[in-house]
Write a structure and sequence with these properties.
The complex is a heterodimer of chains A (about 210) and B (about 350). In chain A, strands 1-2 form a two-stranded antiparallel ribbon. Chain A starts with a helix and ends in a 14-residue tail after the last helix. Chain A has 8 helices and 2 strands. The longest helix of chain A has 30 residues, at about 125-155. In chain A, α3 (about 35-60) runs antiparallel to α7 (about 125-155) and α4 crosses α6 (about 110-120). Chain A has helices at about 5-15, 25-30, 35-60, 70-90, 95-105, 110-120, 125-155, 175-195, and strands at about 160, 160-165. Chain A has a domain at about 5-150. Chain B is mainly α and about 350 residues long. Chain B has 16 helices and 4 strands. Chain B has helices at about 1-10, 30-40, 40-75, 85-95, 105-120, 130-145, 145-150, 170-175, 180-190, 190-200, 215-225, 230-250, 265-270, 275-280, 290-310, 320-335, and strands spanning about 150, 165, 250, 260. In chain B, β3 (about 250) and β4 form a beta hairpin. In chain B, α5 (about 105-120) packs across α6 (about 130-145). Chain B starts with a helix and ends in a 13-residue tail after the last helix. The chains are: A mainly alpha (about 210), B mainly alpha (about 350).
């Protein structure tokens, strides 16, 4: 496979099939942890790591895993990597872990991870799987940081932890309600950009895998 | 082809066209402006009791609603229809739901959310699921709870700019409990009959449009007379609140025992935004059921939720959230109460 195709695969995770804005998967963490850019970034890092490693592992063992028990097998693989990132975060960033520790452990059941393992990694070779997992993870991180930026700006009157002068924070934006608002509006914006500038249909994409 | 030929032979004057066949003078425009007119007494009373500040809130609110509507319709490539009065009404209703002393950017934000997100993004007039003005108020209340619950004493003078903050009757009761709160209210108003009179006229703390019950009832009577609203929702709403507030009764703050069947229905009816909500918000054509029986169920649901929030919830007032929650049930209620077709038998399982 050529480098161009890998690049396209990577970009697919960010634009074409963005986990949050286009596939509408894993919306729970997208609402719950995105009260600031930093939280979104940390969650994105954790998910990117887990997704890349899970896709690599599933791809390696794709011919050895019995299809009848594949879902439990995937969950075990995901749980392993989630434990790694969970313990790492608990050790090195205590404050953030206290705030979002629960959601780090919940990565085990994120729909986007198991769907990429099932739809992509279990039928593709190692390298494309790794690129797909990484691209999807980065797409997830970008989405969470965008949502976090809007919510932090409006809800706390700060950006990246730096308070803005004269801000009148809207409390609703740091509540879950605001999360839904922002996700909906950003999703609409993404669809509009796709429709307006890339000639897309604006609807959720149909096919999966490599295009 | 054959049918047309047949009609031609029947009578040359027979005109075949699709419905609606009965045309009436009533238009959206007329109804919207009439409802706005019905709110005029309340607006005047608001300006009288809360001073020029109240007028400023109302004007900013209406202008921002019209502006938001025009800009959104322009951007979305729709014909600009701000003259139909629906945006004007939304702006006016939202301002009547606000306390008088709020900073003026609040009504602007509230109206932008009400018009752009609640109405236009859902498809414009006739397609919104929720009452735009109430969504605007709910958003403002959630975002700036302190600003939105700082109430001012009515000054009854058009020139006075001084304002004294105070609690609304419902706020007093929530804060101090039913028994003690009642004592405090009596101290504030003098006697119980005086309290009811002041509440009817509007000489009490509250949002701009909710205080003067008489002004609201004049507007409501006009709408009922013109048949722009029917009795079904307002009366089932008010009756449910009256009955339930009497049944739920007074809670003893010391022992925590609730003495049932001792509540004061009149106080519940007159306080808070109940009259404003029941006659002007819960009767919005777009967001409430169409069928009469469904409307009664809608009103009962609103009353039930209002009492639940007032008595057991965290907020002193629950009319806004009660109506919004029942808005969600509107399609379900319409489906549930749909008349069964004649001769149609439900299949047995």
């Amino acid at each position: 496979m050529e480098i161009k195709q890998y690049w396209r695969l990577f970009k697919n995770g960010i634009f074409g099939e963005n986990p949050v804005f286009r596939l509408a998967l894993s919306l729970c963490p997208a609402v719950a942890v995105t009260t600031s850019v930093r939280n979104g970034f940390l969650m994105g890092i954790a998910v990117t790591f887990v997704m890349t490693m899970v896709n690599i592992t599933v791809s390696i063992f794709r011919n050895l895993i019995n299809p009848k028990v594949r879902i439990p097998a995937y969950i075990l693989i995901i749980a392993t990597y989630t434990s790694v990132i969970d313990m790492t975060m608990a050790a090195y960033s205590r404050a953030a872990y206290k705030e979002m520790g629960l959601y780090i452990q919940l990565i085990v059941v994120f729909a986007i991870i198991i769907s990429r393992a099932e739809l992509f990694a279990s039928r593709n070779k190692l390298l494309p799987s790794a690129v797909d997992g990484f691209g999807m993870g980065v797409g997830f991180m970008v989405a969470l940081m965008l949502i976090g930026a809007v919510r932090e700006l409006l809800g706390k009157g700060s950006l990246l932890g730096i308070p803005l002068v004269g801000a009148r924070p809207m409390l609703i934006m740091v509540l879950p309600t605001g999360g839904f608002f922002v996700i909906g509006l950003l999703m609409g914006t993404f669809n509009w950009i796709e429709k307006r500038f890339f000639g897309g249909t604006g609807a959720a994409p149909g096919g999966h895998g490599m295009h | 082809m054959e049918a047309i030929k047949k009609e031609e032979t029947l009578s040359p004057k027979l005109i075949v066209s699709v419905g609606p066949h009965v045309k009436d003078e009533e238009t959206i425009q007329r109804i919207m402006w009439s409802v706005s007119l019905a709110l005029l007494p309340s607006s005047v009373m608001a300006a009288y009791y809360f001073g020029p500040r109240a007028l400023a809130v109302m004007i900013v609110s209406i202008l921002s609603a019209l502006g938001a509507e025009a800009v959104t319709q322009k951007v979305m490539g729709k014909p600009i229809a701000i003259s139909d009065g629906s945006a004007f009404l939304t702006g006016l209703l939202l301002s009547l739901n606000l306390p008088s002393g709020i900073p003026l950017y609040l009504p602007i934000i509230g109206n932008v959310v009400a018009i752009v997100i609640t109405k236009q993004l859902f498809g414009g007039l006739g397609f919104n699921v929720f009452n735009p003005a109430l969504i605007g108020r709910a958003l403002l209340l959630t975002s700036w709870p302190r600003l939105m619950t700082t109430w001012y004493k009515p000054v009854a003078s058009l020139t006075s700019l001084d304002a004294i903050t105070t609690a609304t009757p419902l706020g007093v009761i929530k804060e101090a409990g039913a028994v003690k709160g009642m004592e405090e209210l009596l101290k504030q108003f003098g006697s119980i009959s005086n309290m009811y009179t002041e509440m009817l006229i509007g000489n009490r703390a509250g949002s701009l449009g909710e205080t003067s019950i008489i002004a609201l009832l004049i507007g409501a009577a006009f709408l009922l007379y013109k048949r722009y609203i029917t009795w079904h929702i307002p009366f089932s709403f008010l009756a449910t609140v009256a009955v339930l507030s009497w049944v739920v009764g007074v809670k003893d703050p010391v022992t925590g025992n609730i003495s049932f069947f001792t509540g004061d229905p009149l106080l519940s009816l007159l306080s808070g935004g109940l009259i404003l909500g029941a006659f002007f918000m819960a009767t919005d054509y777009v967001t409430v059921p169409v069928l009469r029986r469904a409307q009664i169920a809608f009103g009962i649901g609103c009353g039930l939720l209002t009492i639940l929030i007032r008595r057991f919830g965290g907020y002193p007032e629950g009319v806004c959230y009660a109506i919004l929650l029942m808005n969600c049930f509107t399609p379900l209620l319409d489906r549930w109460f749909k008349r069964r077709k004649f001769g149609f038998v439900k299949e047995r399982k």
